[in-house]
Amino acid sequence: MKIVCLLIFVFSYSIFANNKIDSLNNLLKTEDGSNRIKFLNNLSIEYYDKNPEKFLEIAHQALKENEQINSKLENFITLINLAFYYHQKDTTKEESFYEKAYLVLPEIKDSQKAIAYLQLVVNFEYKKLVDSTYHYSYLAYKYSELESDAKINLKIRDAYSRVLRNRGNYKEAIKIAEEMIEIAEKNNLGSWIAQSNAVMGLVLRDWKKYDFAIQKFNMAISKLNDFLKNNKVPEAENIIYDNFFFSYYNNLAIIYSDIKNFDEAVKSLQFARYYSEKSNDKVNIAQVNTNLGFIFYQREMFDSAIVYFELGAKQAVDVRAYDGAIINYTNLSSCYDKLKNYSEALKFAKIAYEYHKQNNFGYLAESVYMNLIDVLKNIKDFESALKYQSEYYDEKDSVSNNEVNIKIADLNANFELQNAKKEKELLEKDQKNNLIIFGLIILVAIIILVSNYFRLKAKNKLNAVLSEKNEEINFKNEELQKVIATKDKFFSIIAHDLKNPIASFMQLTDMIHHSYDSFDNEEKKSIIGIMKDSSGNLFSLLVNLLEWSNAQKGNIKVNYEEFEFKYV
Q: What are phi and psi of 267, to 5 degrees?
């Protein structure tokens, strides 16, 4: 026999519904553009439970007005809200709104995607679609890097930590909770410092580190008390913090119940009851009675448990919290089954079943059906037990098919999102390539211009050198012509000067050669003397020629000396 305990950690960010509706209506009178659509979406949510027809009217008004404004984020939120509304009423419309929302998703700015994904997390978490919830909570966390609003970052991490905790990834969940505390302290958000400690307490509770979890929830209570002492809070907002206190004590009761410290569990629930009654939150009051019933059930005090479960069931029905009613009626059936009062057990099991069929809370299906089947087995009504067993499997398959359809729409959206990202990346790549090509063209042009500039400069320099060299050559040629002319003239003079001595010398030698015997000694001496003088003159001419040659080569060093003139 199963017993279901409604022990829920509640973060409530709303004030009294009527006050909030009036406030939103006043804001709508002054706001326009995307802010107006945002307030319309918020207003529609306020009517979701109280007046479904009003919810639909305002949601469709938001869609119509947004046709002119074209706020992608707010359009997406409206479509998701409508899909959520039809979840329990019309599967076809639900899928249709999801498909429309997924088509809008790729068009939302990256800086706003964290909020869009957070909306999906809340939606799929309610439906118990574990994989989708994890997928979108992770995306919301990653895109939160682009989100500057500290409170939105905290809400995203709150959701992501919760998803990680439900998947048993406690170390990562603790890390996210630590990030929350750091963000809250950095931005001096007192109430969020308390909430972040409570988030860590939840992780430690599920991790079965109960002593540390108790410390964290007590820390949350202390931090919230400090915040309220140091800040003047508007009267209308007190309900928010009363709900926070309720959730902290409610979760302390869970922990004490888990470690079988029932006295402390009851004390914590008494505090929880105080804050739920102070804020007049009937859902929380019903929850306290349900939890008290569970504690007495654990202590096998079934008569006392029945009293609290009956009270919790009635209160849940009064506030139309039908999931709470189903849990209480299922627990009542379990209590009577333990007492072997099978007629009462069957009565409450069927009441829980009827509420489930009317409201289709998928996550409670297994508890409702298994409890009813167990009671029928106990009274030997196997035929009815088999009928409900078959019905349960059919409903489970139907839920699975719906989840498959949603996941298919999810995959299609991710595929389109991926294609959009690829197109964006290709466009950015093309733009980058074009920029690189343009840059290369500019660089090549600059290189060519610089190269031509230096080439022209070198050419001009070379031309100047050549011109200078040509002038130098022309000058050398002129000098050479002068030297050649001088040399020719000099050789002409030398030739003339050498001709006579050599001719005379040749005549004398010829005369001696042919008439040597005809001359006496005196005549021979005279001829030899003439030849000596002639050779001496010839030698002097050759010496002069050699000195002239050295002078032309610059081999003669001139030594300048000062001397005095002498008068004659």
A: -60, -45
Burial of 378 (0-12, 13-18, 19+ CB in 10 A): middle
Tokens standing for residue 507: 């005549």
Q: How many CB atoms lie within 10 A of CB 177?
A: 26
How far apart, in whole angstroms, are the C-alpha atoms of residue 164 and residue 147?
21
Instruction: Count Cβ atoms below 10 Å from residue 425 Cβ, excluding itself.
Output: 10
Q: Which two tokens stand for residue 257?
A: 């119940």
Residue 59 Ramachandran class (φ > 0 left, ψ -120 to 50 alpha, else beta): alpha
Rg of the Cα atoms in the chain: 56
* CA dist., res. 145 & res. 100, Å (int): 27
| Closest to 100 in 3D by CA, of 69, 65, 63 | 63
Cα dihedral sign, 67-73-77-79: positive
User: HSE of 473 in the Cβ direction (CA atoms, 13 Å)?
Assistant: 6
Q: What pLDDT is attached to residue 425?
A: 67
Burial of 8-17, coded b for 16+ CB within 10 Å and e otherwise, reads bbeebeebee
Contact criterion met (CB below 8 Å) for 196 and 180: yes
Per the CB < 8 A criterion, the answer to whether 328 and 312 are in contact is: yes
Q: What's the CA dihedral at 20, 26, 31, 33 to 10 degrees?
A: 60
Confidence band of 155 (pLDDT split at 50, 70, 90): very high
SS3 of 221-233: the string is HHHHHHHHHHCCC
What's the pLDDT tens digit per position in 373-409? 999 999 999 888 889 888 888 877 665 555 555 555 5
Q: What percent of the chain has pLDDT over 90?
A: 35
**Residue 145 DSSP one-character state:** G
Contacts of 221 (CB under 8 A, 6+ apart): 194, 245, 248, 249
Rounded to an integer, what distance in angstroms lies between the CA atom of residue 186 and that of residue 122?
A: 26
What single-letter DSSP state applies at residue 16?
Answer: -
Tokens of 29: 């009178």
Amino acid at 463: N
Q: Which two tokens stand for residue 466?
A: 């050549």
Neighbours of 284 (CB within 10 A): 24
Neighbours of 484 (CB within 10 A): 10
- pLDDT tens per residue, range 53-96: 888 898 898 888 888 888 888 999 999 888 888 876 788 888 88
**Rounded to an integer, what distance in angstroms lies between the CA atom of residue 320 and that of residue 282?**
10
Contacts for 85 with CB less than 8 Å, ≥ 6 apart: 48, 52, 55, 56, 59
Amino acid present at 251 = N
Alpha-carbon distance 268 to 171, whole Å? Answer: 27
